[in-house]
Amino acid sequence: MSPSVSFEDRELWDASVQSIPPDQLKARAEAALAREWERVWSSDDLAFYQDFYQAAGLDGSAMPSLSRIPSLTKNDLRRNEAEFPPFGTHRSVRLEHSLRMGMSTGTTGKPWFVFFSKHDLDEMLKIRVPYLWRVGLRPGGRFAHSWPLGLYPSAVLGGRDYAALDILEIPMGPPFTDEVAAEHVRLWQMLRPTGYMLTGSQLQTYDRVARGLGIDLADVMEGASLLLSEASCQFEGPRSRIEEGFGVRLHNLSGASELPGFTSTDCRFHTGLHVSANHHVVQVVDPETGEEVVDGERGHLVVSAFGLDAFALRYDLEDIVSKATEPCPCGETGPRYTFWGRGADAATVQGRRILPMDVQLALDNLGSPEFRMVPGDADVLRLSVESTKSAGDVAALVEEHLGVRSEVAILEVGSLPRASFKPRRIEVAR
User: Which residue has the higher pLDDT, 8 or 112?
Assistant: First the structure.
């Protein structure tokens, strides 16, 4: 859908908050982070961070520049939890202080618990309403999503965000089987949602199942907003193919479940994923030096939070992103970034760091087929690709786009399993 298409109402949920001049945003964030630094040294609940910063030669005097403060990763926090089970000493919101809890398995399969205070839940609600407005959801709408519920962190608000915008929530849960997917499609056909939240794998499953039922999914979804967890759709080619194929207005989303309120979506101009500047500062840093990189260059996404009970100062998500700071036509002035993938999923081939996203974009001219990639250091990029093309043709296409030698195994179209939630495009070495 073209950016020239205008809303029937205002562009931003609250322009007075979302369009604060960048210099004022910076000054406000610096003052707020200085208060977080004071909090470290005055709170008994944050002794873990006092010890960590003291070990780096820092003390409770004036806050140093962010680049001088060492970053933490989830592995650092996991080590703390292993030493002090079950929840460690790093949490500023403890079990006894929480009003809600969430749990994600992450990539290791080991549960990661998140505890939410009442204050943080209320602040998350304030973040979520502009997030939903940005992707075209409006009062009186009907929003169907296939996200996990229960303890999964996406469910912690219990629908308060949709209720705040007077939107009917239709919580489907993931399509674990074709039978479940068929039930979802039939319900959508009856209710005609005005918005959806799906993953790329789920969309493929629903489309295939709908065709088997004799239902045109594009007819069901026509005119709706589609909030899609499929990072390739940050780019024009893949996004346009889905928008035109299903008649939707597509938006991307990202975030981190262990950081309360850190959720992001892109606007209709697709200039990057907008982060709430009311509580978060983002940096994109060189993982080797910890120094910020220039706009457009890839690095690790490092997040600092302020004004929340959940403490986070230079938390390295180890996601590979690039940052944008030029003005966005929508009027929002907060930080934006493009998500490229997880560092752990990368393959380093002939000195180049290749992410699954790079492969997906290289294969876009083939209709973005399903594939698996072998991560790690190697002298050749190893791929398994669903295609009717020859291995040589696919390898030549990949090599042309990525500039590295490739070894391709061709698979029958439809042979790779489709995930019921987030797709996995990594496999062990053959």
Answer: 112
